[in-house]
Amino acid sequence: MSHGPFVVPRPEKPLRVVVWSTGTIGRHAIAGVDAHPDLELVGVWTSTAEKHGQDAGRLAGLDRDLGIKATTDRDELVALRPDCIVHGAMTDDRVFESIADLTALIRDGVNVVSSGPVILLHPDGTLPAEMIEQIHEAGRQGGASLHVNGIDPGFANDVLPLVMTSLSQRIDHVKVSEIADYSTYYQPVVMRDLFGFGQPMDFKALLWEPGILTTAWGPVVRVIADGLGVTLDEPLVEEVERRPAPRSVETVSVDVAEGTMGSVRFRVIGTVDGVPRITLEHVTRTDAEAEPTWPTPNEGDGCYRIEVTGEPCLKVEFTHHGEHGDHNVSGMIVTAQRLINAIPAVVAAKPGLVTPLDLPLVTGRGLVTGTTEG
């Protein structure tokens, strides 16, 4: 079967893949690699000593052995010479350490797709240029590429809105939003320490310190601007509105007592000559019934909403839901799968840090149930 020039051909033989972590993303990545006909799972890394030597299939909750034992030995996995690593380890609380880890992997000649740190979603405007050049140089030395993506930051607010703008005659403003109930989102460090949910309203959570939102989500605004050929004013604009919980609720990550922080609405805005042109918004609740005047999903517990104002006006609401779980479970799956399905394109890409704008069309080729492709 032939394909257009914007789709990477299927590899002649399965690409050898290592999954880096066995947690909320890693366990789904193991299952995703195992299920993909163009990929072969050859190794799994874990940071947990108790998981060392355990079968990857059991760690992924597959109820069957895959014949691959998890290891805490980084060099053992690099020595396997995999074509790519799917890196799903926690990076939010160790940004610069993780950048060093990822840089070392591509210097060692291993391509990497990673869910973080999200600061690497787009190279310009956040990290010092010399640090980005070090990543590119490591890639050139190893002949390997690094691609950071996922669902948000990732597909829901880079590729999807940019594809929508291909229908536009005039673009006045692009707004990308995540509107979600995080009560079933299991990331205690993120929920309690970074967001400050369940903490007193005067708690100094990291995300609300000046400049942190721009560091974390600014790359989303910048990749959209890059895709549209727009030069933004500096710095980006940050807006935050936090609200106390109207009642006590229990979430899977943290208990939220009445009066402690329960909901937040924040924006990172890119302006041109002082006029807002690109907005990233998050509306995050720990109680689905809280803040009824804030935006809510049209259906389900969470959505991504893309709104393009101009001629014509465009609006898409994108939702996902797990077959055996809620939107937070499927959020981990779609994050993992966006990376997994991008592996052939990343392996074929130029060395160094690559963004969604550097890759061809990524699809779920080979994943349609009960079919094969010649």
UniProtKB/TrEMBL annotation:
Q: Which InterPro entries match?
A: DAP_DH_C, NAD(P)-bd_dom_sf
> Which molecular function terms from Gene Ontology are attached?
kinase activity
Q: Which UniProt keywords apply?
A: Kinase, Transferase
Q: Name one Pfam family in it.
A: DAP_DH_C
Task: Show where the 2,4-diaminopentanoate dehydrogenase C-terminal domain sits.
Answer: 157-362
**Could you identify this protein by its name?**
Diacylglycerol kinase
Q: What is the scientific name of the source organism? A: Nocardioides caeni
